[in-house]
Write a structure and sequence with these properties.
This protein is α/β, with parallel strands linked by helices. It contains 10 helices and 36 strands. The radius of gyration is 28 Å and the shape is globular.
Length: about 625
Amino acid sequence: MKIMQEGALLSASFFIVAAALAQQPATLEIDAQKPVAHVSPILYGLMTEEINHSYDGGLYPDLIRNRAFMDDSYGPHGWVLIEQGNARASMELDKSTGPSTAIPRSLKVTIQTADAKNQAGVANTGYWGMAVRGNETYLCSFYAKSDGGMTGPMTARLVSDRTGAVLAEATIPAITGEWQQYKVALKAGAVPVVSAENHFELVARHAGNLYLSLVSVFSPTYHDRKNGLRPDLMEKMAAMHPKFLRLPGGNYLEGDHIPERFEWKKTIGPWVGRPTHISPWGYHSSDGMGLLEFLEWCEDLKIQPVLAVYAGYSMKQEHVEPGPELEPYVQDALDEIEYVAGDTNTKWGAERAKDGHSAPIPLTYVEIGNEDWFDRSNSYDGRYAQFYKAIKARYPQLQLIATTPVKSVKPDMIDDHYYRSATEFFNDTHHYDKTDRSGPKIFVGEWATREGAPTPNMGAALGDAAWMTGMERNSDLIVMASYAPLLTNVNPGALQWDTDLIGYDAVKSYGSPSYYAQVIFAEHLGNQVLGAQVADAGSRFFVSSTRDAAAGKIYLKIVNGSSLSQTIRIHFNGVTQVQNEARLTTLRGNTPEETNSIGDPGRILPVVSTIHNAGTSFEHTMPPYSIQALDIQAK
């Protein structure tokens, strides 16, 4: 018993000493005399793809699921029959009757009996419900034709699941016997409670046959753009201060099989000409988010596109051999670049103008393929060289990105991807410190701390922030970086990948702790990297120091990934005057597991305060599990 007590005392003494040592002030020397490097002006950006219902059921605000009836994995997925009162009807998927060759399908609704009080038709339940807000207008459109005596009228409406109350409706007086698009506005009145417990109905009051396709109910969009994007998600992206968007995505670009790749020419123009396609994440893409919509997304956020072109490899180990077989794919990439950046006197620039965007879109960066290190044929070196030579010959000003190292030509940039634990990022923040500066520049095109589900927890945010200090310190080499994936619908069945930066359902959205870490780092970023030397700090203490010389401001970002508070003695060399008051932004959690959620979106948020003891030398104490940014005025 005595031995156990002595052991316990020794153990307790050890932890007291360890805690005391851990809480000894660290020293942080910031050298403001000579910048170490220039910060890339486009360091932080966005990367998305169709995963976790990021587009359909997320950013793309069409409330209708399976609008073109091209997803028949469960019959007409998302659609149910309506028979009110004594009405009798049936529905079936018609795979040979559609409004176009691109959309060859429709839903055939056969109504045996119906009248004004006993209507029949179909309903769509949306992507885990539909949000309907008071006094908003929803733009409804659909293609239809009729036979068997059906001539109309038809009623489109949004209905409460709970009460059956009609929240918005409009009537289409007549339906012809030929395919035609019909459009109505559904204006909601007062809505007592905003929820996802609503659905869409399209009903008739006469017997006959009705064929429906491309049924859409579009909710209001960011900046009221036609065929635009969901406002709350766009606002969250805007708050990240991004400089670029990598599009159209990673695996989504390649597809599982070559015919399932992102064929950009099939995603432009009217919806009726877009055939839709299966995505590599197990569900159907409407292709409402086509190439032009991606480019307009960039315009709405005032950022530049990083265009990824298909390079002849798909994920199930299918590839196109370099040489004559690859040439059509190279030409397709040249056409795509022309669609983006060509004048209206070019073939594809004129096509873009026809689609409603006459002005060319500035383009600097083109990525050739995605994650081609997975291609076991080892054909990427040859494939990249063929694309590189053709693109540079026509567009020598473009910066071309390789997805893995190549030997045949020197790429302008290499795309590196990292999915790691917080500890792995803590241990690798010096990854790029000694990288050869004579080689290609670096694009960290996908990276994330994968801890927390469906969105990252505070521990992940600490890992992310630590990694960002390393990227900022090396931003002479790292031109761009983008967290991935960006978005996830949090409903059961929507998720394919943990962890994702922003979560949402049909009604609302929230930022994870990692999201707020991204916001803090992008908000507090100068244009010069300052040298920073740390001594006597714990192993989970990380620093980035940048300066905006014109504004006379130093941005000091500090990460404490430890469970103990950390006092720091901060000293600036090369400045003669520091304003006493400094703005302090703090993001912290009680534990690494603490997080935000759809039900508790504000649990961990940045808190802005002011310190009053800043100077050329001063002490500052960081709380445990925290990320802080100090904005210091200095001359």
